[in-house]
Every structure is written in C-alpha cells, then in structure tokens.
UniProtKB/TrEMBL annotation:
The keyword Methyltransferase applies. It comes from Donacobius atricapilla. This is THUM3 protein. One of its GO terms (cellular component) is cytoplasm. It is found in: Cytoplasm. It holds the Pfam family THUMP. GO terms for biological process: tRNA methylation. Residues 189-202 have a biased composition (Polar residues). PANTHER family: THUMP DOMAIN-CONTAINING, TRNA (GUANINE(6)-N2)-METHYLTRANSFERASE THUMP3. The lineage of its organism: Eukaryota, Metazoa, Chordata, Craniata, Vertebrata. Residues 138-147 have a biased composition (Basic residues).
Length: 513
C-alpha cells in the first residue's frame, strides 16, 4: 500500500459490519443527518487537508491508504463550509466503506458480489445528503446568473487573441491539461464514446515502485429494465426519473476484472434497484465505486467539476491547481503582516490563492514573461470583480501586486521578505533542463538575499529534483531543507521543498549605478 497513516476511524465512520455494513446513524430516529465525506486532495497534501478540515470544521480526518483521499464526518448542515475548503479538489458522500473487501478469484463471482452489494447498502442518508447538496448548488447558480455575464470575455486585456477566456464552469481542460493527475481525473466530457456506451480512461498510479493501472471507467448500464422512451416526462404528482452514471476507479493488480466491467455490472444493479435511467453525459447522480486493492468505497459525487479551477479564468500552459497552491502556502505558515513573494508567478495561481486566504499578508507576484504577467493581471481583475459582485459596499481591494521583473535581479530590498513561494520552471513545459542548472543556484541566491535571515522561509515546487539538490548544496550556507512533500503534477512526479533561511547575512547586491 501507499504510505499514509490510517488511524482507526472515529466511531460513526461507516465501518463495514461483515459484508453488509450499516451506514452511520442508521435507524436512529430523529438523529441529526450526518455525512461521511470523502475528499480528493493533491497527492502528498493529505495531512495539510486534514489540518484544514480540523481547523474549519472541527472534524478529525482519516487519511486513506489510497493516496490523495481523506475522509471525515460532519453534520449535513455543514455542507456549505465543506464546499469552502481550499485544499480539496472533489467531494463525495460515502455510502459505505469496506476496509478489507474479499474479492472472489473468479471474475464472474467477483462481479456478481459487486452487483449484490447494491441491495445491501444503506443509501437513504447519503441520498438525503446529495439532495441537500443539490439545493445548495441551485441557490448558488441563481445568484451567479443574476450577477455575472461572464466579464472574462467582455473585459479581457487585448493581447493578440491568444487568451482563452475560459469561464469558470467551462470544462475545457486543454489549457489546464498538465495539472490533473490522471488517477483522480475529473471526468471532463472529452471521452470518445464507443458504441456500447462504455468509456474508460487509463491512468497509471504509482504506489512506491510497483506501477498499477488506476483505470477510470464510466458505464452506461443497458436500459433493458423496461423503461420506455418518454417515461421521464412524468405526470404532475410523480417523481422525475433520475438519470445516473457509475464511475469506477480501480487500482491494484489482484483484481480479476477491469474497472469497465465493475462499473457496468454495478451500474446495472443500481439501475435495477432504483429504477433510475442510465445517462453518461446528462446525469443527475454520479455513483462512485473506488476500488484500491482491498479497500472498496461506494460514494455519491457532490462536486461536478473540480473545485481547483475556482480562481483562474485565464489559464496559461502551466497553471497550477489552486488546491496545490493552497497546500504550498499552508506549509509556510503565513503570519499576519508577512510579505509573501512569488518571483515566477506564471498566471498567478499562488498569489491569488494567497491573497484570498491570507488577506492580512501582503502578496507580491512577478514573472519575466510579459504574457504571464498579463494573464495574472486578468485573473486578479476577475477576482476583484467577483469580490465586488458579492457586496459592493464593502468590496475590498486585494493585497496583491503583479510586476514584470528578472528573477535573478529582483527590485526588492535585501532581507525585506518573509516568505517566497513559487513553482520553479520544470524544463518539461517551459524552459529547458539545461537552463535550470544555471537558473536554480542563481534563483536560490537571490531568494536568499531578499528573505529575512533566521525567520525567512521558502516553499518551492520542482520536478528537476537532481538539479535542485545540486543547487541547494551550493547555497547550503543560506538555506536548509526542513521538509519535502512528494506530489504528482499532471502525471509527473514532483517535489515541494520547505526551506528555512539560516542566520547567515546575504551578500549585498553590487549597486547598478
């Protein structure tokens, strides 16, 4: 299994009682509706997310052995707060969790067991949570439509039409493509449907060294259970027939079946059980079947598209997920009045997240690329407009400035900065590895110069780990490494380093004039 601790769950966490476990609070009359929430988070930042949940919701989390997921229990009335968490990408309500599900060796038997599971699960509370979640979403979209006719498209800074003014709710992921680790990919609608209505996406998920394919499959169960066309134009008193789809993620090499087959058969049983209608693209309910070795979790999705797209309207080639930006900022533990600098800000994901979550700090962002600075400025404008539309009387500015500068000669005073947070050029998509060998030591020196000796800290994300280690050894008198978090950025393995500034005085920069 993957590293990641799994303390014993809190009482009430849906524990499997034998094969058919009862969900939390089952049968307690008049008890307040509770929900076990599952959240997908950037791999490596499970602990950070758990701390945020504890701090904002007061709930303890269990970190899954399946990396990039955490589980916690909240009263259903806390759903709005759950959606405001900054470190989670997607949310679902857990119907049931099996810690050690025994799959039969034979494929047919294993699949039959999954089918039979559907009848044994207690769906009613999770479905109530799903309904409540829907009513919250409806309120939100009503408000949105009223305020905004996509200002992004109206007031773009003109720049040769290069800018995709991708609207928030536009799942066009091409610009954001490198940012979604495949194993937890939000199903964008780009799947090519093959005739049986079965679509799948293969992602490779690594656990330690043995690679396994975490396959993503969505399945449209065959609609032979007697639903005639036009069934869902129901008369007044009747409930509308819900449309659903099953999404299965499977990781592990001991299974006799594919995620496609699991989703198909489980989906058929769901259809039978609820008399819902299978629909791949236009569904009301997305049922999740997550299989990770012997861990099986059945859930219902609460987010349609990943929350990590929330701040950015103008994507660049390497826009960082805001959830990852949040995790990086949190590692630096920003204190009020700290000055936080992102010297290679790209489209501004880190400072924009920073200004939104740590408004009592001052955020300075810069990049040497004018195109990036322009995109970041667009994103900041969108953020300002969003703040104004909420309540124009109290709309505050954002404590954030964006500047074009040279990363190796920053126009900042020596020792004047508390925190540096940045996504270092990867050499994969921007720049080249060869450049990194010169760039990294020069950057680290310059970051060391502007940071306060003794208290300054830096959180840096990079994939060029060899080069970074080499550079760090050359500036060991200025920076010492305090922590490393391994993350997965767009399927590429990267590392986030927390560095602490030593007490050593940095050399003053020679004056230029």
């Amino acid at each position: 299994g993957a590293s990641g601790f799994a303390p014993s769950p809190q009482p009430g966490m849906a524990e499997a009682a034998g094969e058919a476990g009862l969900g939390p609070a089952a049968g307690r009359e008049g008890a307040e509706l509770a929900a076990v929430i599952g959240a997908t988070v950037p791999t490596g930042f499970e602990q950070t997310a758990a701390e945020e949940v504890q701090e904002k919701l007061g709930s303890a989390s269990r970190i899954s052995r399946d990396r990039g997921k955490i589980y916690f229990e909240v009263p259903a009335r806390s759903l709005p707060e759950v959606h405001r968490l900054r470190s989670v990408d997607n949310l679902f309500v857990v119907v049931q969790e099996f810690k050690d599900y025994q799959f039969k060796e034979n494929k047919e038997d294993a699949l039959k067991d999954l089918e039979d599971l559907v009848k044994k699960l207690s769906w009613s509370d999770p479905l109530k949570v799903w309904e409540l979640n829907n009513s919250l979403k409806k309120k939100k979209t009503k408000r949105k439509k009223h305020n905004l006719q996509s200002p992004a498209s109206r007031e773009k800074l003109s720049d040769g039409g290069e800018e995709g003014g991708a609207d928030q709710n536009n799942t066009n992921d091409q610009e954001d493509c490198a940012q979604t680790p495949v194993a937890v990919e939000a199903t964008g609608g780009q799947d090519t449907e093959n005739p049986q209505g079965v679509t799948s996406r293969n992602g490779v998920e690594e656990e330690e060294d043995n690679e396994q394919s975490g396959v993503k499959a969505e399945v449209q169960a065959s609609s032979e259970s007697g639903t005639k066309a036009g069934d869902d134009q129901t008369g007044e008193g009747e409930a509308k027939v819900l449309r659903f789809r099953v999404t299965c993620n499977r990781a592990g090499d001991k299974h006799s079946f594919t995620s496609n087959e699991a989703a198909r058969d489980f989906g058929g049983a769901v259809q039978e059980h609820f008399q819902w209608k299978a629909d791949m693209t236009n569904f009301d309910v997305e049922v999740l079947l997550n299989i990770h070795n012997n861990e099986v979790v059945v859930g219902i999705a609460l987010t349609e598209e990943s929350l990590h797209r929330r701040n950015i309207t103008h994507f660049g080639p390497t826009t960082l997920r805001s959830t990852l930006a949040y995790g990086m900022l949190r590692l630096c533990d920003p204190q009020p009045t700290d000055i936080i600098v992102d010297p290679m800000c790209g489209t501004g994901a880190i400072p924009i997240e920073g200004a939104a979550e740590w408004p009592h700090c001052y955020h300075i962002a810069g990049d040497n690329n004018p195109q990036a600075v322009k995109r970041a400025a667009n994103n900041i404008c969108s953020l300002l407009r969003k703040n104004e539309s909420k309540d124009s009387s109290t709309a505050l500015g954002v404590p954030l400035d964006i500047i074009q500068w040279d990363i190796c000669n920053l126009p900042l005073r020596t020792g004047s900065v508390d925190i540096v947070v940045t996504d270092m050029p990867f050499g994969k998509r921007i720049g080249s590895k060869k450049k990194n060998w010169d760039l990294y030591p020069a950057c680290l020196m310059e970051m060391g110069r502007i940071c306060t000796p003794g208290t300054g800290r830096a959180v840096l994300l990079t994939q060029d780990k060899k080069c970074f280690a080499k550079a760090l050894s050359r500036v060991g008198h200025i920076w010492r490494r305090a922590q490393t978090v391994w993350v997965n950025v767009g399927g590429l393995h990267a590392a986030v380093y927390l560095l602490r500034r030593t007490w050593e005085r940095a050399e003053e920069r020679r004056s230029f004039w």
